[in-house]
What does this fold into?
Amino acid sequence: MLYYLTKRLGLSVVVICLVVLLLFSLLHLIPGDPATIALGPRATPEAIARYAEKMHLDEPVWRQFLIYIGNAATGDLGLDVFSDRPVTAIILERIGFTLALVAAGMGWAMLLGIPLGCLAAVKPNSWLDRVTGVLSVGTIAVPSFLVSIWALLIFAVHLRWLPAIGAGEPGDLGDQLAHLVLPAFAIGLSWVGYLARMVRASMLEVMGENYIRSARAFGLRPRRVIFGYALRVAILPTITLIGMGFGGMISSTVFAEIIFARPGIGKLIFDAVMARNFPIVQGAVLVATGLYILVVLFSDILIAWFDPRVRESL
Amino acid sequence: MPKDAIQTPGTLLDIRNLSVDFRTPRGRVKALRDVSFPIRKNRIVGIVGESGSGKSTVLWALLGLLAKNAEVMGGEVRFGDRDLLHASETQLRATRGEEISVVFQDPMTSQIPVLTYGRQMRDILYRRPELSSAEKRRMAVEMLGKVGIPDPDKRIDQYPHHFSGGMRQRAGIAMALLTGPQLLLADEPTTALDVTMEAQIIHLLQDLQKELDATVVVVSHNLGLIAELCDDVVVMYAGEVIEAGEVREIFHNAQHPYTRALLECDPARINDVSRKLPVIPGDIPDLTKPRRGCIYAPRCQRALPVCRDQIPPDVARGGMSLARCHLLDGPHRDANWPPPLDVMTVGLGEQSVFKPPRVKGDAPLLEVADLNVQFKTVGPLRAWLKGVGQRHVDAVLDVSLSVSPGETVGLVGESGSGKTTLGRCVLNLVPAQTGSVRFEGREIRNMPESRFKPLRRDMAMMFQDPVGSLSPRKSVRALITEPFQIHGITGVDLDSEAERLADMVRLPKPFLSRYPHELSGGQARRVGVARALALNPKLIIADEPTAGLDVSVQGEILNLMADLQAEHRLGYLIITHNLPVVRHIADRLAIMYLGRIVEEGRTDEVFARPVHPYTKALVEGVPQPDPDRRRVHVSISGEVPSLLNRPKGCDFAGRCPFAQELCRAEKPPHVTMPDGRRHACHFPLG
It folds into this structure.
């Protein structure tokens, strides 16, 4: 286990460095001088030179890269070009909204998708199985930004059941939850389909295994056989899928946050890119990458917890 | 028998006129037709038959756990005052596990890998709310101890993958017996196990049956196991019971021609070590077609015209005995049937045209010397973190072996003995660390593939799984000419080559356009042989050539291989764990244990007078198809140790009944005896 964690964390550092490198190269390929953009077209050459020095823009690119990596390791992601506030603080302010959205989106998708897939697999070709099949394909096929817009139009504009934009009053939990419903619905919907399909497929496979026949031959209750035995094995590939799904979800929050005007990381990145606010873009993407790596690692550990064979091979 | 017949006393379960159909894309398969037999209390009943005989279907029908496409067409299964065939799902569930329990065929796949034995066993006891968790655990631990699992209090918290195959099957038996069922069903309980383990499980079942006064039904294709274990025997063929009786009646005075043929085909029963084995010609009938007359008539050695038209009578012999044949009763009764046991009723298949004398003193085709194959177990970083010193296991250790043209060498060992690794290493599929492999005098060990590829024409492989090793999307014609394409051989007419090869392996021409899933096991095996022979090789390495084949068919394949060898002077290296088979076809035997050859010599000598205690255990480990030759005790206990902790001294010392101080301290060197036999034992047997 120790060996495994060491290896995985080591690999994670390498991945993060590669991401930073990629971001750096991309930024340097974009035309325009960062200092001019930051200070505006009317800045004096002295001001630009001073700014460039402060931001280490006069250093060679590889030194800039090393300085950035070094600072990032100590939690310093630089300063916002416009407000001069630390990027880390800005991201910390916003990240909660995104995490809440992703958790709520994936959460309801899991609560609905996994049991649906299970039931569909237990009675293949039943009406429930067929409805689930059609719904899965349907929800997977519709892009989440379309769902966002429709949900917004129907529930917020026409029916006026739920608030349309923002993240709710700070401190008012009920209001914040009400603001969470529509975006979480929008980003989670296609995952209901994914999960139902995935769980159905692996449940069907597991239900055909010899050990399921054994459990039935020992007279175990169907409920115990399905949830205690079959699902316990069938859930393993689904955990990996969910782990990777979080990454995809962080990117689908960009749409949802723009459409619902939620102040999350996605919207932050979008605004920063539009304004060429490089330190924010870099910092936010880095944090998103780190989150993704952590979630995948966590899902692998969860599989090890469920499956003793995996646990011992670590 | 009238439907409402009162159950005879002493009968625990009575199967009457059971008929089951399977709905398949090919049509309705009439898998069971009018199956009737009683299961008598406190006896071990064996259901024996070849694949497709319906023996497992009977077992699953008793439990109400038939596959989804199965349909019970009629009959009843009386169990006490109930009819299990028509019981509700709830009633059946109450019966399963409590009154009727099961030991499964493959302990590797029939136990859930993610739950501990403690958890699985507690689940089985869920219908006992009056017991606390601690009491349930105590019961489970006690039962694990009873089936011979050492240290059960600790091992109960382990998962199935922590157990070896034999231990898993013991745990499977413990799970089945936990509730104290009246009837225990065992579906091929030893098929997935090694010979030495099989003997232990047979005796365990026997002892437990006596101790618990249980009734046991064993389903198996293994005549030796049935003879050794059972009191009553039911013989099934193509979905019908064709004969039933007490074990001695069946094995010593079989009435039905099929039972006779089956017994005669069992290589374990044949003492004459000729190279030819008897076979039952033909295949099991297509059960989608309506039946006329006797189901066995098309293959029967004594078939009369009436057999094809009239259903034979059930001829009772008293007790539960019965046989279904025209020869036994009615106008066609033959007073001279059945003939005495030593008269063969089935033939040897087609005879080979010529048999060249064995030429001695040829240069060996294959020569392996001091070969070592190591497998890496852990990476360097992990080894450093965990403080592991040894990062390899020796899968093959100092192996020397040779095969001459026209010679058959049997490489025998249990699972984990390294026999398959050795075969793959010879074919340059696994790199070897040290030693040499010479083919026709040329060193080929670890030769780069580009230089080795032309040699592959001369050395062919026959794979273990006959169907699985064939691409399901290619026709037989494409499959047997594939070697020509692989080696880029042009200028041959592939169609005529395909026909030539099909002829050679006696595969009828229409089969050339079939696909692997349309072939029976024996036919798929023939395709494998044809593929191996396509490029006129000199050496054939056959990995378990009879695995998965029925007794009546394996003779055909072995006879075919012998004929081809005689014609083409092929060298065979046959990798197998099946001693009775290898006894009939091999000139020399090499016995492997934990990667080392422990004994090597001429087959007849090795069988007549084993020198190494392990060889002796293997030879004695084969259950004999004769109820009068049951073994009283098991000659060898324990299991093959893991390669990860190879014993310091002799690898076999831990299980050897003759082991002494020296054996535990020092590895015995290979010694060549005056008669040319080699062995690795400090104290060779007289």
